[in-house]
Amino acid sequence: MPILYWLDRDKHIKTAANVSYRLLEADDAHSAGDPETANMLIQGDNLDALKALLPYYAGRVKCIFIDPPYNTRSAFEHYDDNLEHSQWLAMMFPRMQLLRDLLAEDGSIWVTIDDNEAHYLKVIMDEVFGRKNFVANVSWRTSDSSNNNVTKFSLDHNEVYVYAKTSDWRPKFLDNPEKRKHFKNPDNNPRGPWFDGNNMQNPGLRPNLQFDVTAPNGNIIKHPPNGWRWSWETIQEKMRTGEIRFSDDNKRLIRRTYLADMEGLPPSTLWTDLEVTGHNRQAKYELKNLFPDAKVTDLFSTPKPERLLKHILELSTNENDLVLDSFLGSGTTAAVAHKMNRRYIGIETGDHAVTHCVPRLQKVIEGEQGGISEAVGWKGGGGFRFYKLGAPVFDPEGRINPDIRFAHLAAHIWFSETHTALHKKARSALIGVHSGAAYYLLYNGILGDKRPDGGNVLTAKILAELPPHDGPKIIYGEACRPGAARLEDLGIVFKQTPYDVKAS
Q1: Distance from C-alpha of 355 to C-alpha of 295, rounded to nearest angstrom
Q2: Whole-angstrom Cα distance, residue 423 to residue 431?
Q3: Across 182-196, average pLDDT
Q4: Which domain holds residue 484?
Q5: What's the distance, CA 477 to chain centroid?
Q6: How far apart are CA 141 and CA 279, in angstroms?
Q7: What is the DSSP string of 409-472?
Q8: Ordered strands of the 253-258 beta sheet
Q9: What's the rounded Cα separation, in Å, for the pair 459 and 457?
């Protein structure tokens, strides 16, 4: 497979692995709504934030949507979108690596981009996600009118690259009323609208189904070039049910198809229907309606319309699935996910995480009726919690941060050992069992001894108090009193904190 090279590539492809794990600290002053919500809005650099999420959400995100800087050599109000080409690649590659690790096995990632970096992005996504996991290159019409001020071409579309975690991922097939207008019900059929057509040909060449049919008047009806769709026995059965019949002139077989029996249609890679996927001008109107007192210059220059995100989430998720946007921008992905009853994590850097995203999501909770609200029946409710990036789990020398709590370190150890997220908050020395092995952590008095070093040393007494497990046991602690032979007899591998805890 071809690999894209750029200045200092060898260093940049290791960036994600070298990023320190950091704590996520809740900020209730900027949180809103239901305090028990799982929805997260994180302020901070998305590389650090994505790494911080790994111990908890690796392999759990059903849909990732990102609208990264396009590197268009023009200064945006809220982004430095004028990165030199190799810097842009160096920025994107490690983020793609972390996003891949967060994606569920049945998940997909959708990335909007324009011509400036589209083809380079495709090559690095092929490398990170695998060429076999490329799904589609969607062309999305972004403008409702062409730009007459340009000297060459009016750029009226963006690309949306779609990749999956595995090659067997499939999008949902949705109904498209525009392509079903030919279904009518002139006879008030109780089964609903229907259509009589000639869709009787087999899609593939089937010599065994190339037989002629004799009509009641003796007329011979020749088979389609590839053969019929069904055997003669099946056609006769469908004649008895009324699905197939002879035409009035006995020269054709007609198949009646009912709209109620139709499955969804495969999505197209050409998104030009502005009523379905919206456009950039519409997105600006949505923001202006939400914040009528804001100056136009204070709003994002290229926000994405809620209809676009609605369509993507309809194709890729179900209710309660987890959605992630690590370039949250004006907050569209989180707002749409909230209205569609999806869980979400949004990451945004700088002050506009507070000045733009927080008030927008507060309005969603209050039941604002802009964007897709009416289409999905949104009336308000729910909530989100606001987080900031805290201190690293480890200091520059690799020592554990003294402020770190048991649950955070347990999640980090679990991820470093199993490469999976810890789905439940650890509340005992037994963190969990994975592939038959149990993982334990003795740290900060988890066994009930609240002295600074209490219970952090593995002794015979502590060993007897640990939750039992019939199988291999990996135990982290500050020191170990039983000898190597005793540990081997008990199937225990002891690892010393902080030295055996991986720092990244």
Answers
A1: 13
A2: 11
A3: 82
A4: 406-496
A5: 36
A6: 7
A7: HHHHHHHHHHSS---S---SSEEEEETTEEEEE--TTTTS--STTTT-EE-HHHHHHSPP-SS-
A8: 194-197, 253-258, 244-246
A9: 6
351 CB contacts (<8 Å, ≥6 apart)?
none
Indicate if the pLDDT at residue 410 is higher than 70: yes
Are the beta carbons of 64 and 413 closer than 8 angstroms?
A: no
Global model pTM greater than 0.85: no
Same domain, 127 and 218: no
- Identity of the amino acid at 330: S
Q: Which 3 state secondary structure label does DSSP give 368?
A: coil
For residues 175 and 380, what is the distance between their CA atoms, to the nearest angstrom?
27
Distance CA 289, CA 370 (A): 7
Domain-located, residue 396 = no
**Tens of pLDDT, residues 325-356:** 999 999 999 999 999 999 999 999 988 899 99
Q: Are 78 and 71 in contact (CB under 8 A)?
A: no
Cα angle at 424 between 417 and 436, to 5 degrees? Answer: 45
Same-domain pairing of 215 and 356: no
Six-digit token pair at 400? 């554990």
- Final residue in a domain of this structure, among 261, 277, 304: 261
- Residue 347 corresponds to which tokens in the numbers above? 């990451």
